[in-house]
Every structure is written in C-alpha cells, then in structure tokens.
Write a structure and sequence with these properties.
The chain contains 14 helices and no strands. It has 2 domains: 177 residues, no CATH class; 185 residues. By secondary structure, it is mostly helical.
C-alpha cells in the first residue's frame, strides 16, 4: 500500500509511511513538476551570469563560482527528489513544506549575481539552508510514521542539521583560500550524509520514478540551453552585417541540443540504479551532466559575443566553452547509463566522438566539428539501438524478489536522500 492510500488523521495529514517501490505506473507528480519550475529560474540565472563573467575575461573565477552555485541547486533538488520517491504523501502539509522549499530556491537565485560579482554568498546560503531545514522537518515526520526506517531517517535529519550550522559558519570566513577549502569539506560532508544514513537502515525507492525525475530535470537544463542560445543569436541579429555565421551557429546549437536530448534518453536509465553503490554513482554523477548542460547554454552566448567582438576572452577559449560542456555531458551519460546497456560499437564510438568535439577550435566555423560528431553519435545509437541488438528490457522480476533485493542487505537503499 502506498502512503497516498493511508487514511488521513483528524488534521487531514497522511502518516508518512514508505511508498511501495513496486507501485505500478509511478511517475513524476504535478507537485514535483511544479517544484522543478523554480529551478528553471536558478539554472537560467546561473548560466546567464556565467556567460557575462566569462565574456568579461574572468574564465577561471566565473567557472569556479558557477560550479559552487550549481552544487547548491543540484543538491537541494536531488535531496527532495530522493526523499519524495520514498515518502511522498501529497497531503496539505507536504505540499506547503514543498512550496516553502520553492521559496528557498528563489532566495538562492536572488543571490547568484552577488556571488559572481562580489563573492557574497549570503543569499545563496540562506536559501539553501531554508530548503535543507524543510528537509529536516520532512525526515523527522517520516521518522515518526515509519519505525522500520527510523534509524535512517533520524540520521538524515541529524546530518543535515549539522551541515546547515556549518554552512552558516562558513559565511564568516573571509580568506578566499580558507573559504574554498572549507567549501570542499562541507560538500564532502553533505555527500556523506546519505551514505551514513543508509548504513543505519534503508529507505525504499522506485527506480522508474527516480529516473523519470532525472529526465525531467535534464529537459529543464536542455530547455534553458535552447532558450539561452536563441536569445543570444536573436539579440545579435541586428548588430551584424553578415548573418550567415550567426544563423549557422543558431542552427548548429539546435542540432547539438537535440543530439544531447537523444543521447540522454537512449539508454534505460532505471537499470543503472541497483543498491547503494549504483544509486550513489547515478545520483552524484548527474551533477556533472546537469552542470555541463547549463554551462553549454552559457557557452553559446560566449561564442556569439566572441564573434561580435564583444568578448575579452580569447576566441579559441570561447569555442572551448561550447565544446567542453558537451564533451562532459556525453561522457557522463555514457558512463552512467549507456556503457552498461550497449555493445562494443556504441561503447567505442560514443566516448571517442565526445572527446573529438574538443577539436572544434581548430577550424574557423564555430561548433561545426561538435555538431558533426554529435550527429555521428546519434546515428550510431540509431543503428545499434536495443531493438537491433537484442538489448530489449529483460523480463520483469516478481515483485517479491525485487522488493527483497532492494529492501535488504548492505547494498539496499537509494543513498541519495
């Protein structure tokens, strides 16, 4: 029985009992999709500000700040997503707390520009801590209603609480080197919380639901790439006489973004999640996939500015801001989902072609080689699709066998809540 089928109490609250990991047809809820919308704002602002910073010639500084900010965006989103797959009750309190978390995302988004320009992370940390405090409330609520998972849920709540105190203290550090070192330590602490909590007990998860949620966020960041690319090209049309290079860049950007979508959704992602190790690899590895997709949108804007002579960045480096994110994205998807579900041809061509996109700066036509190799990858996936290589999904295991595999043993649990 799922939590949604449990009778509400007199306060119209549904006990936060674990969701059934065998629930048929489980997909992203309307609340989860609504929750994702505020992340569109945060990702868009982060990518736009990265574009402006790098165009001004501050490549290293801009990239470092972007990666720090994107950690906060990604980790807050991922924690909510993995919690929801286990304990989503969809009652009024769960909805209200989720909406408050959305407010935290907006606060974080408001602090992105000051973080880039003045290294002021006050708003970012404030919004992040607000989101994480709400997760403490959710975990404690789950601890009350799910005695079998109490050890794990309490460990999550305590670990998150400790980390938030340390993040607030982090704001007091003035020295840049010490602040950077402390940031790395705190990131390590945050990443270790699910591993520690799941070692204390296990929380159920639904692989199809989780991968559906990751797919939704991928579409968000790819959609931001399309929007940013279109805005950069359209905004520059009135400033140039020769429109062919600019229009070519816009067309190639569309083809590349479509190829990224095709590549991501080719493999059966739910197979990549098996126990703690598999879920950690899949969940944490998506940081690089999501961040790269967001950085790609900034790269297109940087390339447009470079063509118009508005950029302080070397033209070769400007081209790399497009090709490097694409290479990281494709390699990340290959490592996490494609490699284990593909044959020798796919596993040779995909990583090789993704690395070859880095040759793009050697020719004068921006993103041409990148587009060429991305099309090669898509053609390879079409030719060697699962239907053509006996890669069809295996028969579904009996529910009891699957549930026992997920819910018992040291490898159980999703490990990313």
């Amino acid at each position: 029985m799922s939590s949604a089928e449990v009778r509400p109490n007199r306060f119209r609250l549904v006990p936060m009992r674990p969701r059934d990991p065998e629930e048929s047809g489980r997909a992203a809820s309307s609340l989860e999709l609504f929750f994702d919308l505020v992340f569109v704002i945060a990702v868009s602002i982060a990518a736009t500000t990265l574009h402006e910073t790098v165009t001004a010639g501050r490549l290293g500084e801009g990239l470092a700040t972007y990666l720090m900010i994107f950690f906060a965006i990604w980790w807050a989103w991922m924690n909510f997503t993995w919690f929801a797959t286990s304990f989503d009750t969809d009652d009024w309190l769960y909805r209200v707390l989720t909406i408050v978390q959305m407010g935290g995302v907006l606060i974080l988004a408001a602090g992105i520009a000051p973080a880039f320009s003045d290294k002021d992370f006050t708003f970012i940390v404030s919004g992040y801590v607000l989101m994480r405090v709400i997760m403490i409330v959710q975990w404690l609520r789950a601890a009350k209603a799910a005695p079998e998972q109490r050890a794990a849920t309490i460990a999550y709540a305590c670990g998150i609480g400790l980390a938030q105190v340390l993040w607030l203290l982090w704001l007091l550090i003035d020295a840049p080197v010490a602040q950077a070192a402390a940031f790395i330590v705190l990131v390590g602490l945050e990443l270790s919380i699910p591993i520690f909590a799941e070692s204390r007990g296990t929380t159920p998860w639904h692989p199809e639901h989780i991968t559906d949620r990751y797919g939704c966020f991928t579409i968000i960041v790819l959609g931001e790439s399309l929007l940013a690319s279109a805005n950069a090209v359209f905004g520059a049309l009135s400033d140039v006489v020769d429109l062919i290079p600019l229009i070519s860049l816009g067309v190639l950007s569309l083809i590349v973004t479509a190829a990224m979508w095709w590549i991501y959704f080719w493999p059966p992602h739910h197979r990549a999640i098996s126990g703690l190790r598999g879920s950690i690899k899949y969940g944490y590895g998506h940081y690089f996939i999501f961040a790269a997709a967001g950085a790609f949108s900034a790269g297109v804007g940087i390339e447009v500015d470079s063509q118009l002579g508005r950029s302080a960045l070397d033209p070769v480096l400007a081209t790399f801001t497009v090709s490097v994110p694409i290479a990281v994205f494709v390699l990340g998807v290959w490592l996490l989902a494609i490699r284990a579900n593909a044959g020798g041809a796919v596993n040779a061509i995909v990583p090789t072609a993704s690395v070859l996109v880095l040759l793009d700066p050697i020719i004068p036509v921006p993103t041409f080689l990148t587009t060429f190799f991305m099309v090669i990858i898509v053609i390879t996936l079409i030719v060697f699709s699962p239907k053509a290589t006996d890669g069809a999904s295996p028969p579904r295991r009996p529910p009891g066998e699957r549930l026992g595999r997920r819910m018992s043993g040291p490898e159980a649990g999703h490990g990313a809540g």
